[in-house]
Amino acid sequence: RPRSMAPPSEWLLLKLLRGETELLRVEQHAVCYWSKQLTGVFCGIFFGMAQMKGLMTLAIFGMVNLSITWIVVSKYVSEDPKDLQQGVHEGFMPSIAGFLLTWITTNTAVSG
């Protein structure tokens, strides 16, 4: 099996749970992407339950997402500046969509 192919996601999850920090480039990008998606969904649920509204909520989400991304990128992505930049940018717009979807849905359900 060539090293460039992505391993099944459960292998990657097992690697992360064991604390392994040496990941393939494809795995690094997957970790960055999915950490942003999970952050978006969890922040959307939390902010919706707290009934936070307005532009300030989006700004707070942006700061939380960037902070968590920075932690993940600094831990799992190689020191190559190009990889660092791509790790920060990877999956940001879909995470905003996931955040908005869960935030609006949760807020509507709670305020019902």
Q: What is this entry, summarized?
A:
The protein is built from five helices and no strands.
Structure commentary:
With 112 residues, the protein is an all-alpha fold. The protein has five helices and no strands. The chain has helices at 9-17, 25-49, 55-76, 81-89, 92-111. Helix 2 (25-49) packs antiparallel against helix 3. It is elongated, with a radius of gyration of 16 Å. It starts with 8 loop residues before the first helix and ends with a helix.
Give me the secondary-structure topology.
Layout: H1 9-17, H2 25-49, H3 55-76, H4 81-89, H5 92-111
Helix pairs in contact: 2-3, 2-4, 2-5
**Kindly state the mean pLDDT as a whole number?**
83
What are the segments in which pLDDT stays under 50 over at least 5 consecutive residues?
A: none
| Order of helical and strand elements | HHHHH
> Strand share of the residues?
under 5%
Helix content: over 70%
Query: How many β-strand stretches?
Result: 0
Q: Provide the gyration radius in Å.
A: 16 Å
**DSSP summary: helix tally:** 5
How far do the termini sit from each other? 52 Å
- Tell me the structural class: mainly alpha
Largest sheet: none
Global morphology: elongated
